[in-house]
Amino acid sequence: MKVVNLKQAILQAWKERWSDYQWAINMKRFFPRGATWDILNLAEALLEQAMIGPSPNPLILSYLKYAISSQMVSYSTVLTAISKFDDFSRDLCVQSLLEIMDMFCDRLSCHGKAEECISLCRALLSSLTWFLRCATFYAEKVKDPLEQAAAENQLKMCLERLEKVLSSTKNRALIHIAKLEEASSWSTVEQSLVKLGEHLNNLGRSPLRSQADDCVSLIKSIPTMLSVHSEQLNKTGFPTVHAVVLLEGTMNLTGETQPLVEQLMMVKRMQRIPSPLFVLEIWKACFVGLIECPEGTEELKWTAFTFLKMPQVLVKLKKYPQGDKDFTEDVNCAFEFLLKLTPLLDKADQRCNCNCMSLLLQECSKQGLLSEANMNNLIDKRAADKENSPSLKSAENANIQPNPGLILRAEPTVTNILKTMDADHSKSPEGLLGVLGHMLSGKSLDLLLAAAAATGKLKSFARKFVNTESPKVFISPPSAKSGPVRALLFDISFLMLCHVAQTYGSEVILSDSNPPGEVPFFETWMLTCMPEEGKILNPDHPCFRPDSTKVESLVALLNNSSEMKLVQMKWHEVCLSISAAILEILNAWENGVLTFESIQKITDNIKGKVCSMAVCAVAWLVAHVRMLGLDEREKSLQMIRQLATPLYGENTLQFYNER
């Protein structure tokens, strides 16, 4: 019924002489609820009505042109509809169809699912067969002296469009995909080529003959496209460079830049890679990494690697002899090549929710790798490309701040924080607490750590926190006012260091230059007590068995006190004693001395103020549980669950949720 109604609507529009935009408005009114015009075959229905007489109906053709321009119909359905027209004796109708093809054949694309992309490939293959049939018809008519001039004119128009379609590598690639999908359709093309060849002799040595021969050779080259392209790729693609960059970005963000520079230069020399293609391959690998990396911390790492570390690597590569040309010209040339990889750049922009190329160019210019004129020229070209491509920003991403911009802003912040941490905070630690608290908000910490890792500052950044949680940081005597601040400074520093060790590995925290017998508390705890992949902890290790008097007083404090006294606490001693205290508490619970309610009160005391106590307790419990039989684990696992659940109450210290 809808198909019938569609034809009636077109006829009504023609009878009442609606303009094209009136027609579009009324069509949407006739067919509400987002009717898909391709399913209704709108393009075919319009062409069918327009081509009834010896010449096309201009009004109905204007509706089709409006539908194409406003994307009511897809290019694939228009091409399919055109390829069904076979009365080539109606010259004016053929001319109109060729003019419709002019509207989009140089920019064929489609939006939607893979099936729609395949439909476009098939439609293009059908239209190729139609072009060949059309050319054969007019090449045959050239023999007739009475119709020679008109036939040559029609043939010229047909071959011009065919050449325009085939001159695009992308269009030939789409036809190649259709050939692989439907071998039978390609055999129809081959038969049409044979028929056209039989009539080409009628053209003599005219320009039309050479134009037709060019089209035929382009069509015959389509089946060999992949093999020819793979030869070109061997000359321009360098997978070793790609692998070195991807491995470094994935596994070694914190590594020094010099070893990477030397590896890359060795590959460049061994494979004799021209400098522009070498730099291009580096950027291609970076963008692939950005697109493919998992969300979260890994995404921030890759962003920092691409926008902060790799420009620094190129600055060092610039110092090596590169041949006659200036290295900045090679970098500019590499970016010119990169601009041609529009799908790669679009995908990266979509992933990062920003214009990645523009930000990268600005960073390279800042590092002296590009002149300002070249930078502006490349930014303008990318902006023009983005205008021609469909909008990549989705509504839900519109308010999300892009990671590349955040990472680039985090880099100077790291330097400022390092300077702030170097100041003397022993007399008034509140200022330092404000800095640390600000770092905990949102994803600030991960951004700062990624920026520090990419610029080689992570070790010194982490060492500042190792010193912050040291008991020697405070010269002034403990007081009721300083107690909570001391507790928070210790806790935030401890938790940040745990996060750094888990994200970037414990080696970025360890120092080679500790004085003998003065290993900071966190290093000791991390090496012996912190669970890591591949590390087996011994719950009976001496580090878990500190001074028994301290353990007893801690157990009494946890069990009896309604709340922890913050003033007298030496937090590094508490964290070392907590494992033995937990063992005592577990034994008391196992033997019925303590009830579940008592255990809840104890775990609330442990996690309620200083979260690092809970971390140390769970670290020991994890090691302890692994030594127990399955039937002995229940109470230990219950305690882990209790400690891992945040406390929802007002009587907690500042920044509790963030911690």
From TrEMBL:
GO CC aspect terms: mediator complex
Under Pfam families, the record lists: Med24_N
Q: Where is this chain's protein located in or outside the cell?
A: Nucleus
The superkingdom listed in its UniProt entry is Eukaryota
Among the GO biological process terms of this entry, one is: positive regulation of transcription initiation by RNA polymerase II
A GO molecular-function annotation: transcription coregulator activity
State the UniProt keywords alphabetically: Activator, Nucleus, Transcription, Transcription regulation
Recorded hits in InterPro entries, A to Z, give: Mediator_Med24
Coiled-coil intervals: none
Can you tell me which family this protein belongs to?
A: Belongs to the Mediator complex subunit 24 family.
Q: What is this protein called?
A: Mediator of RNA polymerase II transcription subunit 24
